[in-house]
Design brief:
The complex is a heterodimer of chains A (339) and B (814).
Chain A (H helix, E strand, L loop, with lengths): L11 E3 L4 H11 L3 E4 L5 H6 L7 E4 L9 E4 L2 E5 L4 H6 L1 H6 L1 H8 L4 H6 L2 H6 L5 H4 L40 H7 L3 E5 L5 E5 H4 L18 E7 L7 E7 L10 E10 L2 E10 L6 E2 L1 H7 L6 H11 L12 H14 L9
Parallel strand pairs in A: 1-3, 2-3
Antiparallel strand pairs in A: 4-5, 5-8, 6-7, 6-8, 9-10, 10-11, 11-12
Chain B lengths: L14 H6 L14 E7 L5 E7 L1 H4 L4 E6 L23 E7 L2 H9 L2 E6 L6 H5 L12 E2 L16 E2 L23 E5 L2 H6 L3 E9 L12 E6 L2 E5 L5 H12 L6 E4 L18 H10 L3 E3 L3 H7 L5 E10 L5 E11 L8 H13 L4 E8 L14 H19 L3 H8 L6 E5 L5 E3 L5 H11 L2 H7 L3 E2 L2 E13 L6 E6 L5 E5 L8 H13 L6 E5 L17 H28 L6 E4 L2 E4 L6 E3 H11 L14 H10 L4 E6 L9 E13 L5 E11 L6 H20 L17 H4 L12 E4 L17 H18 L11 H10 L12
Parallel strand pairs in B: 1-13, 11-12, 15-16, 22-23, 29-30
Antiparallel strand pairs in B: 1-4, 2-5, 3-4, 6-7, 6-16, 8-16, 9-14, 10-11, 10-13, 14-15, 17-18, 19-20, 20-28, 21-22, 21-27, 24-25, 25-26, 28-29
Helix pairs in contact in B: 9-10, 10-20, 11-12, 14-15, 15-16, 18-20
Classes of the chains: A alpha+beta (339), B alpha+beta (814).
Chain lengths: 339, 814
């Protein structure tokens, strides 16, 4: 049978106004249901007729999932809050500016007006073999087309690959990991669980067909930002080909608290190098208690890339990740240091 | 001829419709009982269709007809809209018409096509290997074009098989382009003596990428038939010149085609004469006996929407101590895609000989077909690629010789009636009509604060280094011999028929500014008729090759002068004296020595109708094209008609030049490049429409910047399918990727070989920006950091990290 893409097939569209109603529909349709947030990831899949759900549950009408509220001295961001709203929020700007920078680095102004933070962290990988509908491991097959001698894999993983070499495309994910954000998930049975942002994402070793821990029927309802890193020294940088409407080749996010010139504590995450945003715990442990200087930045950067295994076209990601980690340790104000 | 209208800004008549969304593009039209069609595309890069089983699809409710290659007229071996031997993945095999798109798509999914896979090749060098596969059953490369025959359309070059030897490929391992037997070649001057006399000889290879055209509007089209005539709403750059193509693709007479295209959402060369896919809704509509709409998706467009020919070039250049080029040896392997043949490689050779004026030069090329999406001319086809291949070498030479980058371009720059290209059968070389490149370089250097920017280049600031670059972008910029029709009517208005496409340049309106100028007609009383071949359009140049402003200002100058002469004759006839005693102005024709004695345009228009004959279009000039004749005949009797063919002389070939100046900032820790500033200075003749001209320079430069930094096409080598099948993979530039303060300027010096003085501008900025940005990167981080485009962060970072180039030296479509 012939294949045709870029034409949206028919499906039942549900636009519930409460999470309960949404989950009722999800439970009814089970594996044939699809959760739609801003649609930037979903509509590609649907238009390409690769994901063929019977029912699409649009969360856009659920008021409870929208908006940014104070929460235990920090913030709770509804999963359906648009990236533009995140960027414009005064407390995000003042206390969690790293999330502002990350959200603002996503896609284009038009896409940020439509795209949600919940969708941004939950989106599928952009591996072009997988997205084109090739029957790879992630699609349930038994080959990785991106990891062959001739494959064009400039955008793919250098760390944590396990059969699949796709990477996580989210811009906000590493910032949320660096902020120790908490992901609030409502399960199909109505129960709620809260997991650390770091644990929200899964690599192919855990589940090769998914990017997050969300099970069918689960809905990410909110993202909480604790006070832990509010007002810390932040660093975010995303390297991409095109300054607009492009995914990261590699991105880095860090939150740091200094004591004098010493690094008292730090969170550090990178994305674009593995199937999940990687929190660099070893680097965090190494630099804590050290002076914030070029020497610390260099040892941190060299440790960060240990174990990296580049493919044919993505060896550049090793020095790029190393240098971004170096810059994250140095911070913005020290950008004039030279190595 | 600057005056009241030429050289002044104005509000084009299509503006309000465009900015309010009222402008209707092809897919905005609807017709009673309209069906929709969807295409079945080949999943394989090369195959033979063995069987088509559409029974399940045809049994679906709502499915009305299926069109296959067997329903299409034979085009003498040239590309058709559907095929039984797909030569690239994504080539349309058949089209299904149904009551809606959803049904059509579901019908496509139920069709079984039996394919027999055939050998394929995606990398042009691979097919040249001794045992390399051929992209087509009949060979792998286009030979030299046969000599032109008087009065006959240009014949297709022969399709041949060329294989190089293992020895020819010996240099491949060093990253240098192998140079086996070329199929085309020319040379002039003493190449060996030139190299022997050189103080510096450089020999470098460069890979220019292919890029999809990707206009915002895809090649959607809607068609229906009425009384044996085909009505087609399509998207084209050239309205008048597309009618004949549609007729040929559909297999009917041009007189039976009515093409409606008032607005075109971009083309960049991919819709030069329309698109062969227009024949699908046309023929499907006839078969289904209902109007058919074909909405081309972005994915479809990525396959059938055309792309630039990629070129791997190798150039050996000798330089004297002062930077003057002593000899230039240029070899090109061009990938012309699944169909073709394109002639970018020839234009590249001509451009190199023009902008560097080498006293001795050899050009050799092989024009290879591959199983990759079809190519067509893309904004500056050839000269842009030449800029890409050669400019980094000039930059490197400047550094090694201790010369300023502007100075080395200036000393080699063409001036006046500069010669270019090979020696012709006449024994002479071609020359341009005029070139003021040195003046443009000087003006640009001043406006760009070149010296100041140069002084800060190369110095590290934190982790960044700035660099500056300059490039002379050339392109052919004008044809001759086209027609115009205009009528001065008793309602007091001047109606100018424009067969130019409305692809955003406003050249379709600018031509009427010339008529208004010649006739001193108030602009608000000028009506431009465009966008519909049912509205009696004259024989008009295709809007490709930056020729329209030149070609059609000439034709409309001739037509307006014809109207002016007729006004003078009518006045002399009725008011005495000879026509020469009269002049025009203030909507009157009057005696020079007694302005009160004259008649108004309204009176003259009435009088022309009374007189008939040549005055109102009942008698027409002998030399106009049959299309013009038919249109003028239909308009005869409406008023005083100006109708003429451009027979003005021209000494030389018309070329325009834009000088690009770029400053970039490269972050050596990430490889990221930021364009800090860009200036384009045009040597493009008289400026007709300043606002539009400067927009063209900036817009063309945007394309060049995108090509330098990120835009590309990627083909999976093992499976032969395109991976850049969406916008965000192929990465065209967005407005947020260019400096806010990008500048443009023009010399505004008239070309002496055309009455209005204007040359075209659309294309030269592309190569100017492509070369300038890459030269600026080379200036910042070293000339040997990259030998391919786009120059992405990974290329720069890896080279800096390892102290040598690490990128794939010769592979295409990466």
């Amino acid at each position: 049978m012939a294949v045709i893409r870029d034409v949206m097939p028919a499906f039942e569209l549900f636009q519930p106004t409460s999470v309960e109603d949404a989950q009722a529909v999800l439970n009814r349709y089970g594996a044939d249901a699809w959760v739609l947030a801003g649609g930037l990831d979903s509509l590609d899949w649907l238009k390409d007729r690769i994901k063929r759900p019977q029912a699409v549950v649009d969360l856009g009408a659920i008021a409870a999932l929208k908006g940014i509220r104070p929460w235990q001295g920090g913030l709770e961001i509804g999963a359906m809050t648009t990236l533009t709203e995140v960027v414009r929020h005064p407390v995000v700007r003042e206390e969690y500016s790293i999330l502002l920078e990350a959200a603002e680095a996503a896609a284009s102004p038009q896409i940020r007006n439509q795209g949600t933070i919940g969708g941004n962290v939950s989106q599928d990988t952009r591996c072009w073999y997988y997205r084109a509908g090739w029957p790879c491991y992630r699609a349930g097959g038994n080959i990785c087309y991106a990891d062959t001698p001739e494959a064009i894999n400039r955008e793919h993983a250098i760390l944590g690959a396990d059969r699949c070499v796709a990477v996580n495309p989210s811009d906000t994910a590493p910032a949320l990991v660096a902020l120790d954000a908490q992901m609030v998930i409502r399960a199909a049975d109505g129960g709620e669980r809260v997991v650390a942002a770091e644990d929200y994402f899964v690599g192919p070793d855990i589940n090769i067909t998914r990017m997050t821990i969300l099970e069918p029927g689960d809905i990410l309802t909110a993202i909480r930002l604790p006070r832990t890193w509010a007002g810390a020294q932040f660093y975010f940088e995303k390297i991409r080909d095109r300054q607009v409407w492009d995914f990261a080749l590699v991105s880095v996010a860090s939150a740091m608290v200094l004591n004098g010139s010493m690094i008292e504590r730090i969170r550090l995450a990178v994305n674009g190098v593995a199937a999940r945003p990687l929190r660099l715990r070893a680097v965090e442990a190494l630099v804590a208690g050290r002076p914030r200087n070029e020497a610390t930045a260099v040892v941190a950067a060299n440790l960060a890339i240990e174990g990296a295994q580049p493919l044919r076209f993505n060896a550049y990601k090793v020095p790029l990740m190393r240098n971004l980690v170096k810059r994250a340790i140095r911070g913005v104000e020290a950008a004039t240091w030279t190595s | 001829m600057p005056g009241k209208y030429i050289g002044r800004n104005y509000t084009p008549p299509d503006l309000v419709a465009k900015v309010t969304g009222r402008a209707k593009y092809a897919e905005d039209f609807r017709a009673e009982g309209m069906l929709f069609t969807k295409l079945l595309l080949s999943p394989m890069p090369h195959a033979r269709v063995r069987s088509i089983d559409a029974s399940a699809a045809l049994a679906m409710p709502g499915v009305r007809a299926i069109l296959t290659a067997d329903d299409l007229p034979d085009l003498g071996g040239q590309e058709r809209a559907l095929t039984n031997e797909p030569r690239y993945a994504g080539e349309p095999i058949l089209a299904v018409a149904a009551v809606d798109e959803l049904t059509a798509a579901e019908a496509v999914e139920r069709i079984q096509v039996g394919f027999e896979p055939l050998p394929f090749v995606t990398n042009a060098l691979d097919t040249l290997r001794p045992d390399g596969p051929n992209p087509r059953l009949d060979g792998n490369a286009w030979g030299p074009p046969p000599p032109p025959r008087e009065g006959a359309p240009p014949a297709l070059p022969p399709f041949e098989t060329v294989k190089w030897t293992t020895e020819d490929f010996a240099e491949e391992a060093q990253g240098r382009l192998p140079m086996g037997r070329p199929l085309e070649e020319w040379a002039y001057g003493d190449l060996e003596a030139g190299f022997a006399a050189a103080a510096l000889v450089l020999d470098e290879t460069f890979v220019v990428q292919s890029t999809g055209h990707h206009p915002m509007e895809t090649r959607s089209a809607m068609a229906y038939w009425r009384n044996g005539k085909l009505y087609l709403h399509g998207s084209t750059q050239s309205v008048a010149q597309t009618r004949g193509n549609i007729a040929r693709w559909v297999g009917i007479d041009p007189e039976d085609v009515i093409l409606i295209c008032e607005y075109t959402g971009g083309g960049f060369g991919s819709k030069g004469g329309g698109a062969v896919s227009m024949s699908i809704p046309a023929l499907l509509s006839r078969k289904a006996n209902a109007p058919v709409m074909m909405r081309i998706t972005r994915e479809d467009e990525s396959y059938i929407g055309r792309a630039r020919t990629n070129m791997t070039g190798r150039v050996k250049i000798g330089f004297a101590k002062d930077g003057r080029i002593t000899a230039l040896d240029f070899f090109i392997v061009q990938d012309t895609g699944a169909y073709g043949p394109l002639a970018d490689h020839r234009s590249a050779g001509n451009a190199a000989s023009l902008i560097y004026q080498p006293p001795a030069m050899r050009w050799r090329a092989v024009n290879v077909a591959t199983n990759t999406p079809p190519r067509s001319q893309q904004r500056s086809p050839g000269p842009m690629q030449a800029n890409g291949i050669i400019e980094p070498v000039i930059t490197k030479a400047a550094r090694q010789l201790g010369l300023d980058q502007v100075a080395i371009r200036r000393i080699n720059a063409p001036e006046g009636k500069a010669p270019f290209g090979p020696v012709l059968p006449s024994g002479e070389r071609n020359h341009v009509t005029s070139a003021f490149v040195k003046a443009a370089l000087d003006r640009g250097a001043m406006l760009f604060n070149w010296e100041e920017r140069k002084a800060r280049a190369g110095k590290r600031q934190g982790t960044t280094i700035r660099g500056v670059g300059v490039t002379v972008g050339p392109h052919g910029a004008g044809s001759i011999g086209w027609d115009s029709i205009m009528t001065l009517r008793p309602d007091g208005r001047l109606y100018v028929q424009s067969g130019v496409g409305n692809l955003g340049t406003h050249s379709m309106v600018d031509l009427a500014r010339v008529a208004a100028e010649v006739l001193d007609m108030p602009w608000e009383k000028v009506e431009v008729i465009w966008g519909d071949t049912g509205k009696h359009l004259p024989w008009t140049c295709p809007s490709v090759g930056s020729q329209t402003t030149h070609g059609m200002t000439r034709a409309n100058h001739a037509g307006a002068m014809d109207a002016r002469r007729k006004l003078q004759e009518i006045a002399a006839r009725d008011l005495g004296g000879s026509p020469g005693d009269y002049t025009v102005g203030g909507e009157r024709v009057f005696r020079r020595d007694n302005p009160s004695r004259g008649m108004s345009y309204v009176q003259a228009a009435r009088r022309a109708i009374e007189l008939g004959g040549r005055y109102d279009g009942h008698e027409l000039p002998k030399d106009i094209n049959p299309m013009t004749r038919a249109s003028a005949t239909a308009l005869a009797g409406l008023g005083l008609m100006g109708v003429a063919k451009d027979t003005y002389g021209r000494d030389g070939v018309t070329y325009s030049f834009v000088i690009g100046f770029a400053e970039v900032e490269v972050d050596i820790e990430t490889g990221a490049v930021r364009v800090v500033d860009f200036l384009g200075v045009g040597d493009v003749g008289t400026v007709v429409n300043p606002r539009s001209l400067l927009a063209q320079i900036k817009g063309g430069a945007c394309l060049g910047i995108a090509h330098a930094l990120f835009q590309k096409s990627v083909v999976e080598p093992r499976y032969g399918v395109s991976l850049t099948d969406r916008f965000h993979y192929s990465k065209p530039l967005t407005i947020l990727d260019v400096p806010v303060a990008m500048q443009a300027d023009a010399l505004d010096l008239p070309d002496p070989e055309t009455p209005v003085g204007a040359r075209g501008v659309g294309e030269p900025p592309v190569g100017a920006a492509y070369g300038a940005v890459m030269s600026a990167i080379a200036d910042a981080v070293g000339e040997d950091v990259f030998r391919r485009a786009p120059v992405t962060a990974d290329i720069i970072l890896m080279s800096l990290e390892h102290g040598r180039r690490m990128h794939e030296p010769l592979r295409m479509h990466v």
